[in-house]
Each structure stands twice: as C-alpha cells, then as structure tokens.
Amino acid sequence: MHNETLMPENTPAGMNDFKPQVSPEVRHEAGALVDKYGRRITYVRLSITDRCDFRCTYCMAEEMTFLPRHEVMNFEECLRVAKAFVSLGTTKLRLTGGEPLVRKNVMWLIERLGALPGLDNLVLTTNGSQLERFAAPLKAAGVKRLNVSLDTLDSERFRQITRIGDLNKVLRGIDAATNAGFTRTKLNTVMMKGVNDDEFVTLVRYAVDHGLDISFIEEMPLGEIHGRSTTYISSEETRERLAEHFDLIPSTESSGGPARYWRIPGSDSRIGFISPHSHNFCDTCNRVRITAKGELYPCLGQNDAVNLLEVLRSGADDAALRQRIIDSMGIKPYGHDFTQQMDAPQVVRFMSMTGG
Ligand code: SAM
Ligand code: SF4
C-alpha cells in the first residue's frame, strides 16, 4: 500500500497544491469516510470485470489482454468490500466494468447487493448488449437505475465505434429496461468531433421520445490511445449547438454526480454534461473507484491506489479491511489533471480497468 500522506506530494503541481486540509481526527470520525479535504465519500463505483463484449475505440485498444481469473475479485470478495463500504457510510454503489453483465452468474452478486441494508441506491452502467435478457431480473433484484452507453443511432457507425457491437440489440435492451419498469434510464454519449457530433440533436430527440435522460461526456485521456485531442469537443460547444434546436433551460437538479443538467420544456428528459476538462467538478467529489482486481482508486484521474485484494486474501478480519479503506483517504488527491494530457496520458489505465 502507498504510505498515507497528509501533504499531496504525489499529485501534480497545480490544483492539488494549497488546498485547505482536514485533520486526521475529523477524517477518522467513526463510521464515516472523509478525505483530507473534508469531502465525505458515500459513493463507490465497483468494476466487476475488465472484460467486455465491445471494444469501443475510446475505451480499449483493439487487442486487449485481460486479467487472469484468479487476479479478479470473486463475488464473495466483491460483497465483502461492498459491506465494508456500507459500514463506513456508503449509500450508493454503481456496478460497472468492462461490461458488468458479461460476468458469469452476475445476478448472484446483484441480488445480494440489492438486499444489503443501508445500500439505498444500487445502480449499474452497461453497454446495453445484454439488457434484453437482464432488465427484468435487475429490476427485481432492486437495481434502482441504469446508465446505458450510446454514442450513435447509426448501425454502421455503431459498429465502427464499438468495433463489434450490434446497435439493434442495444436499442432492444433499452426498450426492455423501460418495459421492466426502469425510469430515468440515462444514456451516456462520449462526444467525438468528426465521429458522432452530427448526431447530438438526433440523440437528444431519441432520449426525449423514449423518456430517457442523456449525458454528454467529454472524452478523458485514459490509456494510450492517440489522436484524442483531434476529436475533443467541449460540453459548451455541444450545448450551444443543441440550443439552436432546443430551448434548453438550466436546471439546478443534481444526480449527486459531476453532470450539470438542462431541461427541455414539455419533456421530463434531462440533458446533462460531464465536463472533466472544461468544468472541473473535483471540489464536490464524493466517490472512489474499485477495479476488478481489488485496487481502490481514490481518483479516476490519478495513478495512486491501495490494494484491497491483498487484505481480502490475507485472512484479515473486516476491521482490517475497513482500516485499509480509511487509510486510502490519505491519498485521495484534490483533483485530476486531465486537460494537459490528451494524447500523452499520465493515467495509463484504460477506462475499462478502472470502471467508468
Ligand atoms: N461497459 C459499460 C458501458 O460501456 O457503459 C460500463 C463500463 S464503460 C468503461 C463506462 C462509461 O465510460 C461508458 O459510458 C463509456 O462511454 C465511458 N468511457 C470509456 N472510456 C472513456 C473515455 N476515455 N472518456 C470518457 N468516457 C469514457
Ligand atoms: Fe466495453 Fe464499455 Fe469500454 Fe465500450 S466503453 S469497450 S462497452 S467497457
């Protein structure tokens, strides 16, 4: 494990310097996870696999080497980690990956998480490929809300972006989610100039027509993929383009995350923008991420992590696991440092490793 540091010496110069810090007594308040900047951590994003049935160009390299099975947390280990976080005040947990729904027997874990006292908000991010099959069982298990990635409504383009995916299957999956009773399902669209920017208006119309929310995401430099800077579009540019077609009304609503929302009169759909580059949201960060191999990353945009798998497999008790989690608060930096690194990322993990 990394040593706990009270000064952010491992973080890049810039935003992480000179931020007021909270004393260890406050941070280690019983039953709560508070980082050294006073931010309370109540939201965990748990990646349950690094594998996926798609190979989205912005997320993975064409040839990926996946983790051997024994290096991936088994479901009992995932559940133990989730319980430890809930005992430290976590109320929201998002299952992600890789593609969470391609993991074998995934409902075993989801049913247990859905029944975990104190975990009020179990949610899932998926590429939608398996939703036709899983929508009803997910709803029955207590999953509250789904995020489905959708960058285009053109089948050929969908195939190019995902390298392998079938758009119609995903669209049927979205309908299956609605039919199973999911509401406020959110589409996630990564914005890429020259790739899908001519479809933003169509995607918003699709969301409105189907009673969905949609968030546009600025592409983040995770993993070595060249040419990202040529496709970068800011949220602001997209919002201005959408405003030529829709009456966008700023909304004060928040889903507790980094998105800023707009509404369209006469529709319930929310149009969100996740703008790690143009609108830094780190000051209200309430989350940590856990990879499929049990590494706890306090920040998506930095390389420091603590190893939970080692504790899980050492025979140590739950108190030791909780202590390792509490210790991770010492390395949570004030923020990421994406803007300067689009084509030469400082963060070498792909998004599929950390879990988006
Ligand atoms: N497979 C699931 C999916 O695609 O929704 C869950 C995992 S995926 C890594 C989670 C989200 O991360 C997706 O919405 C995807 O579009 C987004 N994502 C992946 N790589 C990204 C990148 N480099 N920048 C911004 N978003 C990215
Ligand atoms: Fe798979 Fe999701 Fe990454 Fe696409 S974004 S390759 S669907 S993990």
Walk me through the topology.
Layout lengths: L23 H4 L15 E5 L27 H13 L4 E5 L9 H9 L6 E6 L4 H10 L4 E5 L5 H8 L4 H13 L6 E6 L8 H10 L3 E6 L9 H4 L3 H9 L5 E3 L8 E4 L6 E5 L12 E4 L4 E3 L8 E2 L1 H4 L5 H11 L22 H4 L2
Parallel strand pairs: 1-2, 1-10, 2-3, 3-4, 4-5, 5-6, 6-9
Antiparallel strand pairs: 7-8, 8-9, 10-11, 11-12
Helix pairs in contact: 2-3, 2-11, 4-6
Bound molecules: S-adenosylmethionine and iron/sulfur cluster.
CATH secondary-structure class:
Alpha Beta
* Spatial order of the strands forming the largest sheet: 7-8-9-6-5-4-3-2-1-10-11-12
- What name does CATH use for the topology? TIM Barrel
- Contiguous helical run count: 12
Broad shape: globular
CATH superfamily: Aldolase class I
Structural class: alpha/beta
Biggest sheet architecture: 12 strands, mixed
What are the segments in which pLDDT stays under 50 over at least 5 consecutive residues? 1-18
Q: How many domains make up the coordinates?
A: 1
Cα-based radius of gyration, to the nearest Å: 20 Å
Ions and ligands: S-adenosylmethionine, iron/sulfur cluster
**Known CATH architecture:** Alpha-Beta Barrel
Average pLDDT metric: 87
Oligomer: single chain
Strand content: 15-25%
Compressed to H and E, one letter per element, the order equals: HEHEHEHEHHEHEHHEEEEEEHHH
Describe the 3D structure.
With 356 residues, this protein is an alpha/beta fold. It has a single domain, classed as Alpha-Beta Barrel (TIM Barrel). Helix content is 28%, strand content 15%. It is built from 12 helices and 12 strands. A 12-stranded mixed β-sheet has the order 7-8-9-6-5-4-3-2-1-10-11-12. A hairpin with a 6-residue loop joins strand 8 and strand 9. Helix 2 crosses helix 11 and helix 4 packs parallel to helix 6. The protein starts with 23 loop residues before the first helix and ends with a helix.
